[in-house]
Write a structure and sequence with these properties.
Order of helices and strands: HHHEEEEEHEHEEEHEEHEEHEHEEH
Number of helices: 10
Shape: elongated
Number of strands: 16
Bound molecules: zinc ion
């Protein structure tokens, strides 16, 4: 009677049958060290994903990020999109994963690019963030095909570059060039590692800005003849610590950002540089310039304009305290917060899949950081986007990063059911 099993059961069974292939595909991707920066081996990985998707019945397109300065002969930015046509052209469900990984860093007890499978885990840089997610996306679609289920819509799986550095040559490029667009894309799922029973509906906003303090150089033996820019910056840091941070800590968003500490507005000093490099030869000089870069994460309820105005007002107060120093604020990067509509079918589809596969209710979360969702929502204009995929958020960017095999298989099933749901099967 196997041929007469319900389509959902047949699809889930095909995921189980493909388990070794899904793990092997993940391991193979980990063995291509797509380290960003600078963007190593992107072409190898894009071609490998493309070849695999072609073997799984997708039509393949490659998109080099022409026009982006980071797309160079030495480090080409190559993206791959696979398409499976169903019995009708729409709806289109697009599953996107980035294949760049952050540098391995210190502290590994095994080869970060070995793709080792041990004790039910796949180890390696990019295992959870997010090569397992790409494998889950590809095999979710493949399980549907192997189960002989005809989908009344289009399934797309893409592998893209540079998410870790902003995604401008990756998802943003595809969106700017119309390949990812509300004109052709109905739903988008990004299998980032947010835990197998959580669906991520957006993220906070990001405002990176630089503050430059300028004083007046003088001989270090007579500092009273100069104006120290470092002293000037210390007033900024003090105001941030004593005035801004307590104000931010009092603001909580209604968006379910995790972990709980990220439910409030935050600010971090990314870096600071003033005067002479401390590991260089010293000369007696009063520091005339000091610059610092700040990372302000703002809430949907705050909005960017108020966030920026608050920084300007703070600098204005500091100007009053140290009038001999001049201060300039420069915007470095702005990412607006995103939030998927509560009643979005893509949230419902993942929640239903989690319920069926894991037998428990999915938790809605939002990300403390930002990811490619912003480009899907803001540039492509596709509101129905979530992140859902295998792997634990806390594993991302850690030494001995791993993804559990059972999470990988479970999330592949959830994605397969979500595709069936969204395409109306
Ligand atoms: Zn990621």
């Amino acid at each position: 009677m196997t041929g007469h099993a319900a389509p959902i059961d047949r699809v889930l069974r095909e995921v189980d049958r493909a388990a070794d292939e899904i793990v092997a595909f993940t391991s193979e991707m980990i063995r291509i060290p797509t380290v960003n920066p600078p963007g190593e081996h992107y072409e190898d990985c894009a071609r490998f994903i493309g070849d695999t998707l072609r073997r799984l019945g997708f039509e393949i397109e490659y998109f080099a990020a022409e026009g982006r300065p980071e797309h160079t002969a030495r480090h080409p930015r190559l993206n791959v999109v696979g398409t499976k046509h169903g019995t009708r052209p729409r709806p289109t469900v697009h599953l996107n994963g980035h294949f760049d990984v952050v540098p391995a860093g210190e502290g590994w007890t095994l080869d970060p690019f070995g793709g080792t499978v041990r004790d039910g885990r796949i180890y390696g840089r990019g295992s959870c963030d997010m090569k397992a997610g790409i494998a889950a996306a590809a095999f979710a679609a493949e399980a549907i095909r192997r189960a002989g289920v005809e989908v009344p819509g289009t399934i797309e799986v893409s592998g893209t570059v540079d998410e870790e550095s902003g995604g401008f040559a990756g998802v943003a490029w595809l969106a700017e060039h119309g390949r990812l667009s509300s004109l052709r894309t109905d739903y988008c799922i990004i299998p980032e590692p947010l835990n197998v029973d959580r669906v991520c509906i957006g993220h906070r906003g990001v405002y990176w800005f630089e503050v430059a303090a300028r004083g007046h150089i003088a001989h270090g033996s007579m500092p009273f003849l100069g104006v120290s820019a470092i002293d000037g910056m210390s007033h900024v840091l003090q105001a941030v610590r004593e005035e801004l941070i307590p104000a931010l800590a009092a603001r909580r968003t209604a968006v379910p950002v995790v972990p709980d500490g990220a439910r409030q507005a935050t600010i971090n000093v990314n870096g600071i540089f003033g005067g002479q490099p401390v590991d260089g030869i010293q000369t007696p000089c009063v520091a005339d310039v000091c610059r610092a870069v700040f990372d302000r994460r703002f809430l949907l309820e705050e909005g960017f304009d108020a966030t920026r105005a608050e920084v300007e007002a703070l600098i204005d107060r500091v100007r009053g305290r140290m009038p001999q120093v001049s201060y300039a604020v420069k915007d470095l990067m702005v990412v607006h917060p995103t939030r998927t509509p509560d009643d979005s079918p893509v949230i419902a589809a993942i929640e239903s899949g989690v319920q069926q596969v894991l037998g428990r209710t999915a938790t809605r979360v939002a990300s403390p950081g930002t990811y490619d969702h912003k480009h899907v929502a803001r540039i492509a204009g596709v509101p129905h986007c979530v992140a859902y995929g295998p792997g634990e958020l806390e594993q991302a960017h850690q030494p001995d990063e791993y993804c559990r095999v059972d999470d990988l298989i479970a999330s592949t099933k959830v994605l397969a059911l979500a595709i069936l749901d969204l395409t109306g099967k």
